[in-house]
Structure formats: structure tokens, C-alpha cells
Design brief:
The protein is an alpha+beta fold. The protein folds into two domains: about 15-215, no CATH class; about 225-320. Helix content is about 40%, strand content about 10%. The chain contains eleven helices and twelve strands. The protein has helices at about 15-25, 30-45, 85-95, 120-140, 150-170, 205-215, 225-235, 245-255, 265-275, 310-320, 340-350; strands at about 50-55, 70, 95-100, 100, 110-115, 175-180, 190-195, 240-245, 280-285, 285, 290, 310. It has a five-stranded mixed β-sheet with strand order 1-2-5-6-7, with helices on both faces. The longest helix has 25 residues, at about 150-170. The chain is elongated, with a radius of gyration of 36 Å.
């Protein structure tokens, strides 16, 4: 019996197989890194808690300034509790160096790091989206011969893959890293890691919540804490005052000092503290043993480059030794002579019985 079996070969492209082949072309390529950076940039666009966001930016391109900045680390610096070296080494590199010179204001940086366990999934999702995108590009350029049904399939698959990326990227970038120095006498810098909740609110709100609750950044401070730091590090027997602007500049530099959100935080706490005699006195300069514009218990002060914060006991002693002089009231004006007008009126009055 003759076998009349015939086989037909479909010359149309198998889109799923084509996509898988193209995925392998994108692995470990610059396109993947650029796509992840673009997705993370959109996620971070809602972060208003910091003054600047730097995504995959080398430390040489991060400005050494007083603004609070969030550094987004690349995938190769992923963090895991079991393996912290790659992420922590990258953080310390940023904190210590600015191109070929040391970083001056290292206490203005926070870091967003990817989770080592989910890096592979993020890369796979990105490669899938890139592969479907390249297929659509070839369809539009007539380099891939498919029918309308397959074109619709490619468009749907690309949309689905693109929609997944923000959620997967959010799940991957779930660690907030913060460099710390335990004390002024301990030169060793360490890094602390704080997990972000990826299922609630936006990335910006979550970064702000974790940074504030853990006092990584201080948006509101109190006079008792300022007095404590000044007493611990600045006020000495031979040095009873410190320039407020110098203290703020030090908070930008040294990791053992609080990371204030901005200069306004210090300005507000100085006004609150100056209102009583419990925390410090103020002056706007010193000439010899005399404090210029000395105030104690007076909130009418303004943070500028000249403002001095004086140790409270020293301010109390200075106030006792230099009592404020009461203004002398002006002497009363003696009564003047009768005016010529009144005199002329008297003289022109008619005598009794006349007229």
C-alpha cells in the first residue's frame, strides 16, 4: 500500500520561539542596564524627600555639596544579608571618594540597593520586554513576515511584559543603605541596611518613612538634642561658644553627627531653644570678653554665619556679670511762656463799662 502521508511546513515565524532566541541576545548587554535605569527612574520620580537622585551614577559625577542625595546602586552591587560585601564596598567608595579626591560632605548620601535574590528575575523580565519590543520594531520595518493575528499577539505580549517591569523593579530595589560612624573617636565607618515595604504606598513615601523612623534623616529636631551634641563635642572649659554655621557644616561632613534634612531644621531648633534659658545663649560675635548682641532667653534670633551658641551656664554667668542697662526716660519738657496770640487777645478786650 502506498503511503500518501504528506507534511506541510508553516513558513510563518513562531513568535514565542523567536522571542526566546532574542532574549539571549540581550543578556548582560548595555540595553538591559539602560532599560532598568529607565524603569527605576520612573519609580524614583516621586521621591521628594531628597534634593537629588542619581541612578547608576559613578561617584565622580555626584556633586560634593550640601544637598541630601539618594544614590541608586547598579545590579552588580546587590545586597543580601548573607553577602553584604559588594553593596557595602560600593557605599564606602561613594562616601570616601569624589573622583580622584576625597569626598568632603559624605554625610549627605543615602543609598537604594537591589536585592540579590530578585536581580535575576528583574533581568529576565527586562530581556523579555526588550525581545518583544525588537520583534515589533522588525514588524513595523517589514523585516518580519507575519500575519495580523500574530502582530496583535506580539503587541499584547509586549504590553504585558512592559506592565510587569515597574512592579518587579520595585520588589528588587528594596534596601535602603546608610553609612554610619558610631562616635567621633571611632574612625571605622559601617553600613546599616533597612528593608523597604514593597507592597504599600509609593517608593518615595516608603523611603521617607524608613529614613525618618530610623532617624537616618532628621526633618524635625529638638533643642535638648542640639544642646547634647554641643556639650559632647564643642563646648569645653576654654571654649564656651560655637558658631552655629560651623556646626551645620560639620553635620554635612561627619557621619557621627545627625543628618539634618536641610539648614532650615537647625534654624528652627535654634529659635525654639533660644526662647528659654535651658539650652544656650546667643550672640552675633565676640570682641575680647564681650559678646556682641548677647541674648539669653530671647527667641528673636536668626541663623546666619555670625551667630554664636553659648553654653547655658556660661551664658547665665555672663548675664549676671553684664546686666542689661535700662533705658533712661527723657526729662519732661518745662512749660513755655504765654503765647503772643493769647496776650494780644487779652489786650484787645474792652474795659468794663465801655463800648
Amino acid at each position: 500500500m502506498q503511503d500518501n502521508t504528506r507534511f506541510w511546513f508553516d513558513t510563518r515565524a513562531n513568535l514565542r520561539r523567536e522571542m526566546e532566541d532574542r532574549k539571549r541576545r540581550f543578556e548582560n548587554k548595555n540595553e538591559v542596564r539602560a532599560k532598568i535605569a529607565d524603569v527605576v527612574k520612573k519609580l524614583a520620580s516621586g521621591i521628594t524627600f531628597t534634593d537629588g537622585i542619581h541612578i547608576f551614577t559613578p561617584h565622580s559625577d555626584v556633586p560634593d555639596s550640601g544637598e541630601l542625595r539618594l544614590i541608586v546602586l547598579p545590579l552588580e552591587n546587590a545586597y543580601a544579608r548573607e553577602e553584604t560585601r559588594m553593596a557595602f564596598d560600593a557605599v564606602l567608595e561613594y562616601v570616601r571618594n569624589n573622583e580622584s579626591k576625597p569626598l568632603y560632605r559624605g554625610n549627605r548620601l543615602l543609598f537604594l540597593a537591589p536585592d540579590h535574590a530578585t536581580v535575576g528575575r528583574l533581568c529576565d523580565c527586562v530581556c523579555t520586554a526588550l525581545a518583544w519590543g525588537s520583534i515589533l520594531d522588525d514588524i513595523k520595518a517589514s523585516r518580519l513576515n507575519i500575519d495580523l493575528l500574530q502582530q496583535k499577539q506580539a503587541e499584547n505580549e509586549f504590553g504585558t511584559a512592559s506592565d510587569v517591569l515597574p512592579r518587579v523593579a520595585r520588589e528588587c530595589y528594596k534596601w535602603l543603605l546608610c553609612p554610619v560612624q558610631p562616635s567621633a573617636t571611632d574612625p571605622k565607618i559601617t553600613v546599616e541596611a533597612f528593608p523597604l515595604n514593597t507592597s504599600v504606598s509609593t517608593l518615595g513615601k516608603e523611603v521617607e518613612r524608613v529614613a525618618t523612623e530610623n532617624e537616618l534623616v532628621i526633618p524635625t529636631w529638638f533643642p535638648i538634642h542640639l544642646r547634647s551634641k554641643l556639650k559632647e563635642l564643642y563646648w569645653k572649659a576654654a571654649k564656651i561658644d560655637v558658631r552655629a554655621a560651623d556646626f551645620y557644616e560639620d553635620t554635612l561632613r561627619y557621619l557621627y553627627l545627625p543628618r539634618l534634612k536641610d539648614r532650615g531644621v537647625l534654624a528652627q531648633v535654634i529659635v525654639k531653644g533660644a526662647a528659654t534659658k535651658d539650652f544656650f545663649g546667643t550672640a552675633y560675635g565676640q570682641s575680647g570678653d564681650t559678646f556682641e548682641e548677647f541674648k539669653f532667653g530671647d527667641a528673636n534670633v536668626q541663623l546666619d554665619d555670625m551667630l554664636l551658641l553659648i553654653e547655658p551656664e556660661a551664658a547665665k554667668a555672663y548675664e549676671a556679670a553684664h546686666p542689661a542697662q535700662q533705658p533712661v526716660p527723657p526729662e519732661p519738657t518745662p512749660p513755655g511762656p504765654t503765647t503772643s496770640n493769647s496776650k494780644s487777645v487779652e489786650q484787645t478786650l474792652p474795659a468794663p463799662g465801655t463800648g
